[in-house]
Design a protein that fits this description.
The chain is an alpha/beta fold and 491 residues long. Helices cover 40% and strands 13% of the residues. The chain is built from 16 helices and 14 strands. The radius of gyration is 27 Å and the shape is globular. Bound molecules: pyridoxal-5'-phosphate (PLP).
């Protein structure tokens, strides 16, 4: 049984006047064990400390401990202390441990906006393993240079001035903001100063922050359909009205959007690699979108969540690089380029918005953790970041090709898997009569992670397809994934 220290100041319910002291203490400790506040292996405060804390004789505490020991809740070890014993099942009997159903939550007195988001949002579980076919949201975590990261982190933590352990800048750690400004300038053609970069907790917080700063309840937001649900949820949380705009071979259909909703306040786009279809927005559409935004004074959020990964053709410049009126807000993230748990992303905002974004950022969680930002800064400045991204570009390109080849060989006529030329995921069109949901259910049972394309649709239906991630899966896992799909589809 692993042993754990407890917080020595244990808070207990007040004693009733007619209750014996030792019995009260025994009852309170027993409830704390049963409802899981004191877990198996936890050390109880010493009899001396408890007696001093509550102002009674030590013999009273000893009597309570003896009763708990006699009933099998704790065991005492000479000179080590008194520990809670394992008792599977106790915690289940506690009302505090019973999880309320989603239904119960949604009818409770929470805001209507959150109630409706609860009905349509499914949380991704925490990863217990990495590299599973065809998980769409993880990069190749098994290939991340953990040893290098640990060395950099150890050095930064040891050498950082004490001031880095104090309050940080709401906009982010200045050297990281400089490193990001330099990186997006060179790699994505984003011209900005370090002051215009705000460090966030991933791209998701950048979207949430933008919604808070730029949108009032009822404002209209154009969203690509199909599109990234996390963006729609962020805008809806701010009370905005999401207007789905269909996507064709050139990306978001801007002409149609202007006709149906000419006064939108904000547009959300993924022009380098449309999520989830992988389309590149054409030059004409980019110009059309920028000139409309300039005319009506709308904001454009350009989400380049995985723009580093392009496997053929020339690099595609960002929309931001074409913007001359300061309408584009650029979002990027290190969670896809390095590893998910890092939770560091960034947003580049026009100068006139910097102060509003810094203030809103400080309301959310003050600032991103400074020491993690300092580690990332060193990792970038020493060249490890650039090397890792270049290496992953080759790895992901190989994985995309392997998936396409395997699918061609084994799934022909069953599933038409697109050979992705960018990003970390691809779309696989279902060619048999099986429904997306039936295919997903069978895949789940056989240990595959696939997402139905319909889960990204807002209004405009798509042909049945699956969204498959390939970047995080090694060769064997891709082959296993394809053979599982073959087994399901050829039945
Ligand atoms: C299109 C898109 N934008 C933003 C995000 C959020 O990224 P992060 O994990 O950095 O918050 C994701 C995550 O999967 C995404 O797919």
């Amino acid at each position: 049984m692993p042993k754990r220290e407890t917080f020595q100041d244990l808070v207990l319910e007040p004693r009733k006047d007619d209750q014996e002291m030792w019995r009260w203490l025994y009852t309170e400790l027993r409830s704390a064990i049963i409802d899981g506040r004191l877990k198996s292996g936890a050390r109880l405060p010493s009899t001396r400390n408890l007696a001093a804390q509550y102002g009674f004789a030590r013999g009273t505490v000893v009597a309570a401990f003896q009763q708990l020991q006699a009933e099998g809740y704790v065991s005492s070890e000479v000179s080590a202390g008194t520990f809670v014993l394992p008792a599977p099942g106790w915690e289940m009997t506690s009302p505090a441990k019973q999880k309320p159903s989603r239904q119960a939550i949604s009818t409770a007195t929470i805001a209507k906006r959150t109630q409706s988001l609860l009905k349509t949002t499914f949380l991704k579980p925490a990863s217990h393993s990495v590299g599973k076919a065809f998980r769409s949201y993880e990069p190749a975590i098994d290939l991340f240079p953990v040893e290098q990261w640990a060395r950099t982190a150890a050095r930064v933590y040891r050498k950082a001035p004490r001031s880095l352990y104090g309050q940080g800048d709401a906009g982010g750690y200045p050297p990281l903001r400089r490193a990001i400004a330099e990186y997006v300038g060179q790699s994505r053609g984003v011209r900005c100063s370090a002051e215009q970069v705000i460090v966030t907790s991933g791209a998701q917080q950048a979207l949430d922050l933008s919604a808070r700063v730029l949108l009032d309840p009822g404002d209209e937001v154009w969203m690509e359909d199909p599109g990234y649900p996390g963006a729609a949820r962020a805008f809806q949380s701010a009370g905005a009205c999401v207007i789905p705009i269909p996507v064709d071979r050139d990306g978001m259909d801007v002409g149609r959007a202007i006709k149906s909703c000419p006064t939108a306040r904000l547009v959300y786009v993924t022009p380098a690699n449309q999520f989830p279809l992988g389309i590149v927005m054409s030059a004409e559409r980019r110009v059309e979108l920028l000139s409309w935004a300039r005319r009506v004074g709308a904001w454009i959020i350009e989400d380049e969540y995985d723009a580093e990964y392009r496997y053929s053709g020339k690099p595609i410049a960002s929309l931001h690089s074409l913007d001359r009126s300061g309408s584009v807000i650029y979002v990027g993230t290190f969670t896809k380029m390095l590893f998910n748990a890092l939770r560091i992303g960034f947003i580049v905002v026009p100068e006139r918005l910097v102060e509003a974004f810094r203030v809103a950022r400080s309301f959310m969680d003050r600032h991103a953790p400074t020491l993690d930002q300092a580690v990332l800064t060193e990792f970038i400045n020493e060249g490890h970041f650039g090397r890792h991204v270049r290496r992953m570009r080759q790895v992901y390109s190989d994985r995309s090709q392997l998936l396409a080849e395997e699918a061609n060989r084994r799934l022909s006529g069953l599933l038409d898997v697109e050979h992705a030329q960018s990003g970390m995921c691809t779309v696989a069109w279902i060619k048999t009569r099986i429904t997306e949901m039936a295919l997903k259910r069978r895949a789940d049972q056989l240990g595959l992670e696939v997402s139905p394309l319909s889960s990204f649709v807002i209004k405009y239906e798509q042909k049945p397809a699956l969204f498959l991630g390939f970047a995080g899966c090694n060769e064997n896992e891709i082959k296993r994934g394809v053979s599982v799909l073959e087994a399901i589809l050829s039945h």
